[in-house]
Amino acid sequence: MSVKKPLVFSLVVVYRDRELLRVERFLDSLQHQTRQDFELIFIDYGSQPNSQKDIQTLVEKYAFAQYIYTNTRGWFWNRSKALNLGIHQANNDNIITLDIDLIFEPDFLTKVAKKFSLTHYTRFTYYYLPQNFQDFAKLFSDNHQPEKHLDKTNPATNFGILAFTKAIFLKAGGYDEYYQVWGLEDIDFVKRLEASGTTSQGFIEGLRVYHQWHPKSQPQLAKGWYEQMHQYFQKQPEKRPLKNIFQTPSVITINQRPALQLKAIQDTAGFEFTFPKELSFVRFIYLFEQLKPGQNLRVQQRFAFIENHQSTKWGRLMHRINQFFIKLKVSYRWVDLDQFNSELILKKEVSDFLFHFLIVWQSQIADYYFDHQTDADSLELILIKK
After folding, report:
1. 174 and 313 co-located in one domain
2. Are 110 and 212 members of one domain?
3. What is the count of structural domains for the chain?
């Protein structure tokens, strides 16, 4: 009877709605590690139902992997929350945060184990594979070393892949969950590691880790979103009080998502943004403030092209303008106020407003579902008042 070796590492990776082949390559490279005394905590942070089952089936084929689905559909992507949950679920104190795009050499964990520090955090570099790379089977053969011709991560900004102990993580307070959608949570975490007295032991040299190519896909950020995140980052003092900044994380279930339950109920009634948009924004805020706890405010709006009569000179002009915008693939609502006064209300303007509303008013929101990406010409929002 074989005795199961005690775990040495807990690897944590976070995910939402990515293609299966990319994930399979990531998992296969861990399957082929020369040492198998590790677990992988795989946090699925709210994939859509049509892809969630497929990714769960794939991950559960690997004995070392623990698949955890947290039902955050319709919430902003929050890598900090996902990582905090994954590290909290880890069964070992030695943590390595990973990226789903990476492929690791077979000796990756063997080399890391020799350099892992109980008192410092460790950083990693990796190489970017080109778009048309196909020689994955030869990637780690002795006579195939593509890294000689590949771009490498920037040591000044690359903090996404780190190794540290759970004690160090808790001392720093975990990842700050204010950062949402994209950017800065890694740099902020390292900043607080340093402030809590934990310094870096630098990089582990000689590792062969590759990043699978994908298009540069910075999410559809609201205007001023990154600046807002950066301003928050800049305001954080170098020496912050050593406190745990996040509550004990837990897996979110459908029973904790009243907004998702409401989404299943088809309801055409709801708030609609109209011209002038500034007045609509004020009305929206006012209506939300008037809600009682547990009540909801719903937006389900299509920014479609409105038909215009072509029997008049003005009507024909509006029709030609509409056709021009169709060719440009611009989503908008045309509001004809009178014969000489008209206005465009862009989906992007409404979406940007709702992005910032959800951040500024988050302390008053019990739950929400926000979808601005599924359909290019529409958006949906369900708010539940706290």
Report:
1. no
2. yes
3. 2
Tokens describing residue 91: 């069964």
Domain of 324, in residue numbers? 257-385
Q: Which of 253, 285, 261, 274 is nearest to 368 (CA)?
A: 261
Instruction: State how far the Cα of 364 lies from the Cα of 347, in Å rounded to an integer.
Output: 25
* Domain assignment present for 2: no
Do 221 and 272 sit in the same domain of this protein?
no
Do 187 and 281 fall into the same domain? Answer: no
> Rounded to an integer, what distance in angstroms lies between the CA atom of residue 163 and that of residue 144?
28
Q: How far apart are CA 153 and CA 306, in angstroms?
A: 48
Q: 324-352: per-residue pLDDT in tens?
A: 766 666 655 555 444 444 456 888 899 99
- Ordered DSSP codes for 188-226: HHHHHHHHTT--EEEEPTT--EEEPP-------PPTTHH
The predicted model scores a pTM of: 0.87
Which of 89, 103, 101 is closest to 15 using CA atoms?
101
Residue 80 backbone phi and psi in degrees, to 5? -60, -50
Helices and strands, number each (H, E), in the chain: 11, 15
- Asked if residue 241 is part of any domain, the answer here is no
Q: What is the pLDDT of residue 66?
A: 98
